[in-house]
């Protein structure tokens, strides 16, 4: 997961804003504090002197281990290209490397509460077609297979007309336990592969916590048809077997 969402080759221009949010050591005798006091006494106003310096380092540059530590501590606060913070409020989910939103937050997006900041919201329903046809979130696209994902999102990436606004992608399946998270990671992996780091076509990805199973009972009016067909429906055992074979 670490390889998908970040890289040790983080440019300095991205590291600097992250540093401003890292708590400074409290011990006055740490190398950071000592370096800062000496620099202030000699050349006041030099910001580079306040940057932490690794063992044996004599300049303000960062070694590989320091960059890794900075990103490990703070990378979840920024979207995939490290350009800005995540827009939507997130909640704890099954997979710690992914960003989850609640059904309430999904409903807020659907009702246009973020329309001034989001130009396009792509809701990716990763369930099998018979599940999708039995009831899905309005406007969601059904992309159950990896090739479907590549064809729809990467062959001709969605680009905002207004560069001040965002394109976000929200994944879900029945429970958002396996299929949704897997496809979210797949998109990030392919997106990384076809772009120069850290640029991404889709830097802001979310997973709907609880999936359609949790969203439908609370927000039926946002679904069409207003129904819920589970993956293990008695009438679709053959369809389930067929799509599971395709997924392997």
From TrEMBL:
<keyword id="KW-0378">Hydrolase</keyword>
<dbReference type="GO" id="GO:0005634">
    <property type="term" value="C:nucleus"/>
</dbReference>
<dbReference type="GO" id="GO:0004725">
    <property type="term" value="F:protein tyrosine phosphatase activity"/>
</dbReference>
<comment type="similarity">
    <text>Belongs to the MPI phosphatase family.</text>
</comment>
<comment type="function">
    <text>Tyrosine protein phosphatase which functions as a dosage-dependent inducer of mitotic progression. Directly dephosphorylates CDK1 and stimulates its kinase activity. Required for G2/M phases of the cell cycle progression and abscission during cytokinesis in a ECT2-dependent manner. The three isoforms seem to have a different level of activity.</text>
</comment>
<dbReference type="InterPro" id="IPR036873">
    <property type="entry name" value="Rhodanese-like_dom_sf"/>
</dbReference>
<keyword id="KW-0963">Cytoplasm</keyword>
<feature type="domain" description="Rhodanese">
    <location>
        <begin position="117"/>
        <end position="224"/>
    </location>
</feature>
<comment type="subunit">
    <text>Interacts with MAPK14 and 14-3-3 proteins.</text>
</comment>
<dbReference type="GO" id="GO:0000922">
    <property type="term" value="C:spindle pole"/>
</dbReference>
<keyword id="KW-0498">Mitosis</keyword>
<keyword id="KW-0904">Protein phosphatase</keyword>
<protein>
    <recommendedName>
        <fullName>M-phase inducer phosphatase</fullName>
        <ecNumber>3.1.3.48</ecNumber>
    </recommendedName>
</protein>
<dbReference type="GO" id="GO:0000086">
    <property type="term" value="P:G2/M transition of mitotic cell cycle"/>
</dbReference>
<keyword id="KW-0597">Phosphoprotein</keyword>
<dbReference type="GO" id="GO:0005813">
    <property type="term" value="C:centrosome"/>
</dbReference>
<dbReference type="GO" id="GO:0010971">
    <property type="term" value="P:positive regulation of G2/M transition of mitotic cell cycle"/>
</dbReference>
<dbReference type="GO" id="GO:0005737">
    <property type="term" value="C:cytoplasm"/>
</dbReference>
<feature type="region of interest" description="Disordered">
    <location>
        <begin position="21"/>
        <end position="59"/>
    </location>
</feature>
<dbReference type="Pfam" id="PF06617">
    <property type="entry name" value="M-inducer_phosp"/>
</dbReference>
<feature type="compositionally biased region" description="Basic and acidic residues">
    <location>
        <begin position="21"/>
        <end position="32"/>
    </location>
</feature>
<dbReference type="Pfam" id="PF00581">
    <property type="entry name" value="Rhodanese"/>
</dbReference>
<dbReference type="InterPro" id="IPR001763">
    <property type="entry name" value="Rhodanese-like_dom"/>
</dbReference>
<dbReference type="GO" id="GO:0110032">
    <property type="term" value="P:positive regulation of G2/MI transition of meiotic cell cycle"/>
</dbReference>
<keyword id="KW-0132">Cell division</keyword>
<dbReference type="GO" id="GO:0051301">
    <property type="term" value="P:cell division"/>
</dbReference>
<keyword id="KW-0206">Cytoskeleton</keyword>
<dbReference type="InterPro" id="IPR000751">
    <property type="entry name" value="MPI_Phosphatase"/>
</dbReference>
<keyword id="KW-0131">Cell cycle</keyword>
């Amino acid at each position: 997961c670490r390889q998908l969402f970040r890289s040790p080759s983080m440019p300095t221009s991205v590291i600097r804003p992250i540093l401003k949010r890292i708590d400074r050591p409290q011990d006055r005798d740490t190398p950071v504090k000592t370096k800062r006091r000496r620099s202030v006494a000699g050349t006041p106003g030099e910001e580079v002197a306040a940057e932490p310096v690794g063992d044996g380092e004599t300049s303000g540059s960062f070694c590989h281990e320091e960059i890794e530590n900075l990103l490990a501590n703070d990378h979840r606060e920024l979207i995939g290209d490290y350009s800005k913070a995540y827009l939507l409020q997130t909640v704890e989910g099954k997979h710690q490397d992914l960003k989850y939103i609640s059904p309430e937050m999904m409903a807020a997006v659907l009702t246009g509460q973020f329309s001034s900041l989001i130009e396009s919201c792509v809701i990716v329903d990763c369930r099998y077609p018979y599940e999708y046809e039995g009831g899905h979130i309005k406007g969601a696209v059904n992309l159950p297979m990896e090739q479907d994902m590549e064809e729809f999102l990467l062959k001709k990436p969605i680009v905002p007309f207004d560069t001040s606004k965002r394109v976000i992608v929200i994944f879900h399946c029945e429970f958002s336990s396996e299929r949704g998270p897997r496809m979210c990671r797949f998109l990030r992996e392919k997106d990384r592969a076809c772009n120069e780091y850290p640029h991404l076509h889709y830097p802001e990805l979310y997973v709907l916590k609880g999936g359609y199973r949790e969203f439908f009972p609370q927000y039926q009016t946002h679904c069409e048809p207003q129904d819920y067909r589970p993956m293990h429906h008695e009438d679709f055992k053959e369809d389930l077997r067929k799509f599971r074979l395709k997924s392997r």
